[in-house]
Amino acid sequence: MRVFTAAAATVGLVGFGAGAAAAAETYEVQPGDTLSGIARSLDTVDTWQQLHAANPKLSDPNLIFPGQVLQVATGGAAAPAASEPASEPTSEPASAPAATTDTGVWDRLAQCESSGDWSINTGNGYYGGLQFALSSWEWVGGQGYPHEASRAEQIHRAEILLERQGWNAWPSCSRQLGLR
Known about the structure:
By secondary structure, this protein is an alpha+beta fold.
């Protein structure tokens, strides 16, 4: 369930001429949301960085909580404010799949699942930082064993699993982290 509220009654009534000011909407964070996921679900925001820039009190974009209210710009360009610095490039190598979800949530989940050890194989039938079952790993297109894949690859496969199965793929830790 996505929760939007209009912060200005003129959102649908004001033309988009040169003199029209951008109206603001709010979005209430739901369990399991990430800034990038919210940005993908909105027509007015292209990237999580734009959503982060619209919420200056949000100090860490990887830490959002259910019930938190975010500002969403509408009625104009959804570009970051000019005073905001440009985001820095990621440190992942170009050959690694780019994560579309804020990676902080995956680091927190890995901390819970495997003490943050992305190459763990304890022999319990689950592998890697996010403790994939081999069948789940293969179902989302993973090759070989999860614990032998890079952190970025594990996150990429986890995002696919999240889309298919939701946070229930990590029942205990997702509940402990308030993701569902």
